[in-house]
């Protein structure tokens, strides 16, 4: 793995667990196995530039995940996406959240990373909007509102699940989202905790 990629990967992992403020250069060097010199050779502006690059990489990774979901069936896509986050939360013992949210909340320390987070959210919403228009015959304006609601709801549910150390908020949010995208003639069975 190239040094730059290793630094980005380590930084994404730290952002997920500690946020921007809790992700210092010492932690990055320890997590990546790279020196400070390597950080500055690859990211001359230091931590802020590295956090921005990590945010962009994480945003693109999640955009690729979203694009790979079965978007022709929005309810199935929601279930699969929810399962990915449930696994992440449980396997990390509720310590890992979304690095995009971490970057968005770190504007005071890394404004470019917060801007990158905004770009990621817009990209996800655009992908979901296009899919909803194509596969569920929603009008574009309604599809955009539903896509925005989906992203905001899932992100909020991830935060609440981490805070409560329970996947119940995620389950409840996903259940409501499934109802939101389900055709009128279908009912959705509410989720229950594992």
UniProtKB/TrEMBL annotation:
Entry's Gene Ontology molecular function annotations: DNA binding
Keywords, comma-separated and alphabetical: DNA-binding, Transcription, Transcription regulation
Residues in the DNA-binding region annotation: 24-43
Gene3D superfamilies given in the database record: Tetracycline Repressor, domain 2
Pfam family, any one: TetR_C_13_2
Domain HTH tetR-type span(s) in chain numbering: 1-61
Name of the molecule in the record: DNA-binding transcriptional regulator, AcrR family
Species of the source: Tsukamurella pulmonis
């Amino acid at each position: 793995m190239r040094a730059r990629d290793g630094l980005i990967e380590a930084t994404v992992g730290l952002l997920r667990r500690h946020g921007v403020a809790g992700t210092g250069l010492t932690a990055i060097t320890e997590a990546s196995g790279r020196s400070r010199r390597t950080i500055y050779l690859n990211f001359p502006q230091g931590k802020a530039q590295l956090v921005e690059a990590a945010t962009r990489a994480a945003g693109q990774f999640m955009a690729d995940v979203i694009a790979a979901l079965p978007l022709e069936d929005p309810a199935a896509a929601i279930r699969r996406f929810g399962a990915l986050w449930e696994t992440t939360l449980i396997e990390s013992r509720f310590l890992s959240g979304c690095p995009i949210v971490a970057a968005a909340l770190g504007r005071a320390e890394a404004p470019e990373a917060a801007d990158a987070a905004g770009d990621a959210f817009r990209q996800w919403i655009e992908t979901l909007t296009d899919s909803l228009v194509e596969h569920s015959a929603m009008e574009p304006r309604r599809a955009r509102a539903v896509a925005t609601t989906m992203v905001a709801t899932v992100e909020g549910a991830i935060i609440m699940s981490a805070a409560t150390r329970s996947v119940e908020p995620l389950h409840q949010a996903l259940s409501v989202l499934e109802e939101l995208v389900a055709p009128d003639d279908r009912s959705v069975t509410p989720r229950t905790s594992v």
